[in-house]
Specification:
Elements: H1 14-24, H2 42-48, H3 57-72, H4 88-96, H5 101-118, H6 125-130, H7 134-151
Helix pairs in contact: 3-4, 3-5, 3-7, 4-5, 5-7
Length: 153
């Protein structure tokens, strides 16, 4: 069965149709597409993109612990102050939640940096923490984080 539909529409000039829509929306017509550019060599692409740093577990532990101190406060002479502040060891524990390898390595790096800045007499982090000012403790934390970053640990 063949069905023929006669619409009785008058044909419209396509240019006239385009001009009518241009009057309704006078935005300029898009330019003709440019020829595709030659692909860049991989070395150029890699050189243009800055490297993405992914902190290692020690750096992350130290960074998280320092952020904890910044948020909750730093304490002396006790692991956890009643108002939530913590000493350096308390901050490390809060950052990892358990005594993991990252916790132990972060503690070793922090104590090593404390000895570099304040003398080799410090046998443990709590004694060093309690004998120094907040600014001195923070300086050691920041240097330990920087060392972890440079060592990519």
């Amino acid at each position: 069965m063949n069905t023929h539909t006669d619409t009785h529409f008058t044909p419209v000039d396509p240019d006239l149709y385009a001009k009518a829509f241009q009057l309704l929306d006078p935005t300029p017509a898009p330019a003709a597409p440019a020829a595709p550019a030659a692909p860049s060599p991989v070395s150029v692409i890699l050189a243009a993109a800055p490297p993405v740093h992914r902190p290692g577990p020690v750096e992350k532990t130290l960074t998280d612990a320092l952020a904890f101190l910044d948020t909750h406060g730093w304490a002396k002479h006790r692991l956890i102050h009643p108002e939530g502040a913590r000493c350096s060891i308390g901050a490390l524990r809060a950052a990892v939640g358990a005594r993991t390898t990252a916790y132990r390595d972060a503690g070793k790096l922090l104590l090593d940096e404390a000895r570099r800045q304040h003398g080799s007499q410090w046998k443990a982090i709590p004694a060093w923490n309690d004998a120094h000012t907040g600014a001195q403790v923070r300086s050691v934390w920041e240097a330990a984080i920087q060392r972890a970053h440079q060592a990519n640990v």
